[in-house]
Amino acid sequence: MVAWSVELSEFYLTFAPRGAIKSQMLADFVLEMSNLPGKDTTLPWTLSVDGASNIRG
């Protein structure tokens, strides 16, 4: 970080580190975006064809 600070000072820029992410916010995000086991929300697919399909391809 010190090396970056020195390099950025040439262009009158300063480095500001990001704040920490709150742990509860991260836990809530992971819970919301993950699929819970036993909870299947996908519906079965239905394949419709026009009769041009058969067992041999």
TrEMBL record:
Superkingdom of this protein's organism: Eukaryota
Protein name: Gag-pol polyprotein
Organism: Trifolium medium
